[in-house]
């Protein structure tokens, strides 16, 4: 791989979310200056410290004025914002397109003034490929997403490529599998491990769409952050990278591992499967390993123990959690 010197100031769009908060904290610890663009009234997660090199900007990346202000003086842009999840995207695809796709095109229009500033985009390895013909799934696999969320993520990738060709805007796409770890919301339908852990620790039953046999690729959030940093520093002719563990686990596998670590049992209630839940999604991460020099460092059991410790330390255990959405996208 080829690397460039890492820029001093980064803009993180969606820096108040799960991955964004962890990236913000890590870059600050690295001595970087960070500007976060986040929606108004979004509470800052506890994992983000007060820091003199952190600038928190309230605004919307679909607003040209907010974008223009946020882009002043930055040398890289991490695009982690998403307003939808796979299930809700199908309920209102028009909103998905307006808020995510058109917002990204607006960002790229503003970035035409900044030809040397790269965009690192968090795409969805769990949804852009659709039903896999081969597992693990490599970047060259056909892309036939079965929900609006995946269609919009893939279309954003195409626009990034278009703006590179037309205007020279550099970009990197990370097609992420299912990240988990500190900062993950445990009261949303998205994020299977966070929801399962909170259920087991609070002694509550969990509802799972389908029979629990769907297989996904789960990886710890610190590995997602290291991949983002590697992508920011990379200079070369590859633009799309799968990021995950490279290993598959069913929901029942995850539940069994959690029960083993916590020494607690959980009642499981199964509900009807959903049409857009593909049975297996495991990513081939060979390109990221070879080109970026990146590899996941945290095994599943270690990551689960870290997550249990964080939940216990922060008291973030809820008695009410929704059914699981296994099509985890980044954010």
β-strand number = 13
State the helical fraction. Answer: 25-40%
Spatial gap, N to C terminus: 27 Å
CATH class of the largest domain: Alpha Beta
If strands are numbered along the chain, what order do they take across the biggest sheet?
A: 3-2-1-4-5-6-11
SSE layout and pairings?
Blueprint: E1 9-13, H1 18-29, E2 33-38, E3 54-58, H2 64-71, E4 76-79, H3 86-91, H4 93-111, E5 119-124, H5 148-167, E6 171-176, E7 178-180, H6 192-202, E8 206-209, E9 215-216, E10 218-220, H7 221-233, E11 240-243, E12 249-250, H8 251-262, E13 268-271, H9 286-292, H10 300-314
Parallel strand pairs: 1-2, 1-4, 2-3, 4-5, 5-6, 6-11, 7-10, 8-13
Antiparallel strand pairs: 9-12
Supply the key terms.
331 residues; alpha/beta; Rossmann fold; UDP-galactose 4-epimerase, domain 1; 2 domains; seven-stranded parallel sheet; two-stranded parallel sheet; disordered C terminus
What report would you give on this structure?
- With 331 residues, this protein is of the alpha/beta class.
- It folds into 2 domains: 9-178 and 220-243, Rossmann fold (3-Layer(aba) Sandwich), CATH 3.40.50.720; 181-218 and 245-282 and 297-314, UDP-galactose 4-epimerase, domain 1 (Alpha-Beta Complex), CATH 3.90.25.
- 37% of the residues lie in helices and 16% in strands.
- The strands form 4 sheets. Strands 3-2-1-4-5-6-11 form a 7-stranded parallel sheet, sandwiched between helices.
- The protein is globular, with a radius of gyration of 19 Å.
